[in-house]
Amino acid sequence: MQQTITLLGATGTIGVNTLKVIDRHPEQFKIFALSGHRQFHRLAQQCIRYQPSYAVVLDNKIGAQLSALLVDGNCPTEVLVGAQALCDVASDPSVDSVMAAIVGSAGLRSTMAAVRSGKKVLLANKESLVMAGTLFMQAVVDSEAILLPIDSEHNAIFQCLPTYYSSDHRGGVSKLLLSASGGPFRGWELAHMASVTPEQACAHPKWEMGQKISVDSATLMNKGLEVIEAGWLFAMSPENIDVVVHPQSIIHSLVQYLDGSVLAQLGYPDMRTPIAHALAWPERIESGVENLDLVALSQLDFEAPDQSNFPCLQIAYSAAKIGGDAPAVLNAANEIAVQAFLDRRIGFTEIASVVDNTLLAYKFNEPESLAAVEEADMIARGMAMARVKRIER
Ligand code: NDP
Ligand code: MG
Questions:
Q1: CATH code, domain carrying 190
Q2: Within a domain: 333
Q3: CA angle in degrees (0–180, nearest 5) for 83-85-86
Q4: What is the DSSP letter of 303?
Q5: In angstroms, what is the span from residue 102 Cα to ligand 1's centroid?
Q6: Quick one: which ligand is closest to 216's CA?
Q7: Domain boundary among 150, 180, 195
Q8: Which of 33, 52, 214, 345 matches a 20 to 30 Å C-alpha distance to 85?
Q9: Residue 150 CA: which ligand is closest?
């Protein structure tokens, strides 16, 4: 049966990889809507090729430029503008599956709209789950949405868990072991990282990703966000989620069982594998990724994460432990700090101090609505921006 898909964040790294997998199985997937933000030329090309019913952007001027390109390309796709339009195409009754691949808190409302309307949700936008964990997971239960992780570690864990796994029936699972590549600065001392550039931070040794997640991988904040993400997805407390650094990025994560068994999922570091897994689930489809050649690899290494030179991981664990709106505050402060670093306003090692200071100064609450989560996000952004101003070079 053909799946009708809305692809949020179509112009990003995950979006483009999703279309590459879909290209191999055109008969199985129909694109209902594509969204983008600044890369409207790329979005126009995608619309001309896939002919979705709708294309969504956030800004009127970009919407007009996109419409003009679509007219030139003889493309019947209708252009919609605004955050509500993202939610509308994510919850439209004709849509079966939503790929949530907008980066950061900008993806919260549309991802939640997909969840609340009971879709099959392919979750790349980890920030939405980090921000609104309780509300998000309750919405999954209430709407009977199917939540499939795209993040390679969580997708690996999902594949290694018993099919009947739940918080009441853990099937002997004792721990989750999240793999981390260690990022481009693995082995570096904190003092040496003070002067690294955005270009160095974004040059990830194993994965090709958008700028924000590349910086998060370099600080290890990405792993911290992933610990929180895994906690929600698999109903596991942070004490039972360990991080293991594995520089080759071949083992994408592992599940430890009570009897001493450890199950792992392996593959080359290529997001087409988890994307294909989630697109086809519970079936399997070909993704275009080569078969793993273990003999050629010959060696896999593991080490403990370096918490003292990469403080963001520990900061994220603390936010997970505090709970309530602490993860939303962590995420908001991190988004501000990462953007300030990319804009060359603060140094790389100051990202951790902006986040830490924001968390220390914030009065935590238990958010009972999405609006409360967004308020926490807004307040934390204000606090983090003030901190950035104080330390700006
Ligand atoms: P990119 O930066 O490559 O793409 C982000 C997408 O979101 C683009 O389509 C971009 O549009 C759009 N976007 C950016 N800002 C906004 C906004 N304010 N409102 C609406 N749309 C916006 O990121 P990635 O594809 O790398 O990552 C996407 C998500 O997937 C992130 O949450 C990331 O953590 C997660 N993820 C990514 C992995 C990867 O390997 N890349 C792995 C695991 C998770 P435009 O480009 O047109 O401006
Ligand atoms: Mg990941």
A1: 1.10.1740.10
A2: yes
A3: 65
A4: B
A5: 4
A6: 1
A7: 150
A8: 214
A9: 1
Atom of ligand 1 nearest to the CA of 38: 48
pLDDT tens digits, residue range 252-271? 999 999 999 999 999 999 99
Asked whether residue 85 falls in the same domain as residue 207, the answer is: no
263: left (phi over 0), alpha (psi -120 to 50) or beta: beta
- Encode pLDDT of 40-87 as tens digits: 999 999 999 999 999 999 999 999 999 999 999 999 999 999 999 999
Tally of domains within the chain: 2
Q: Which atom of ligand 1 is nearest to the CA of 102?
A: 7
Residue 361 structure tokens: 């100064």
**Type of residue numbered 218:** A
- Provide φ and ψ at 205, rounded to 5°: -70, -25
Q: Which residues contact 230 (CB under 8 A, 6 or more apart)?
A: 153, 154, 157, 176, 178, 236, 241
| Strand 146-149, strand 54-57: pairing | unpaired
Does 216 contact ligand 1 (Cβ within 6 A)? no
Residue whose CB lies within 8 A of the most ligand 1 atoms, among 21, 35, 58, 103, for a mutation test: 103
Sequence-ordered alpha helix ranges (H) in 8-131: 13-23, 40-50, 60-72, 83-91, 108-116, 126-131
| Residue 84, domain extent | 3-150
Task: Note the pTM of the prediction, 2 decimals.
Answer: 0.98
Choose the weakest-confidence range: 91-100, 112-121, 153-162, 202-211.
202-211
What's the CATH code of the domain at 12?
A: 3.40.50.720
pLDDT by residue (tens digit) across 143-185? 999 999 999 999 999 999 999 999 999 999 999 999 999 999 9
* Cα 115-217-277 angle, rounded to 5 deg: 45
Q: Alpha-carbon distance 73 to 260, whole Å?
A: 59
Final residue of a structural domain among 121, 150, 179:
150
183 and 78 in a common domain:
no
Q: Can you tell me the distance from the alpha carbon of 279 to that of 342, in angstroms, rounded to the nearest whole number?
A: 33
195 with 315, same domain? yes
Residue 248 lies in a domain: yes
Residues 67 and 178 both lie in one domain:
no
